[in-house]
Amino acid sequence: MAGELPDYYFRVRENGALVFRVDTENPQRRIEMDQIAVVNIRNGEIKPHGDRTLSEVDVTVIRDWMQERQGVLAGRDVDDILRTVDHLNLTTQWAQSRATNEQLETVTDALLLAMHDLRGVLVRRKAERLMGQDKTD
Q: In which domain of life is the source organism classified (predicted)?
């Protein structure tokens, strides 16, 4: 393999990851991965796997990964929303220029309800932010 392998491997799952310690220092020079913990990003929980006790180094590496992962996920959330804005623009163009009456009949109610719901949430949250600014001024 090119390069040196990391000491830890994080198998990402929906709410966090399974954490493995990577070992190549064995007589067969095989890659061995030993699960040491389960991580929950949402609540910050780190559970040692089985009857293990995690070292301070283990916990530090895991917490650093959790912080980095939360940043990656937050960036993806914003990127996904910006893609949604693009998609809404493309949908508008499609509805105006190419959609048939039958296609519009199929999607109009669902789109109108979703956009109405989104607009209500955005207006309320913007008002909350503006009211919060008034309190701090």
A: Bacteria
CA gap 28, 134 in Å, rounded: 67
Q: What separation in angstroms does the CA of 132 have from each of 106, 115, 121, 124? A: 41, 25, 16, 12
Residues 6+ apart with CB under 8 A from 47: 37, 38, 39, 40
Residue 55 near residue 36, CB atoms below 8 Å:
no
Compute the radius of gyration of the chain from its Cα atoms: 24
How many angstroms separate the CA atoms of 137 and 28, rounded? 67
> Amino acid identity, residue 27?
P
Q: What are phi and psi of 22, to 5 degrees?
A: -95, 130
Partner residues linked to 19 by β-bridges: 10, 37
Question: pLDDT digits over 37-95, tens only?
Answer: 999 999 999 999 999 999 999 999 999 999 999 999 999 999 999 999 999 999 999 99
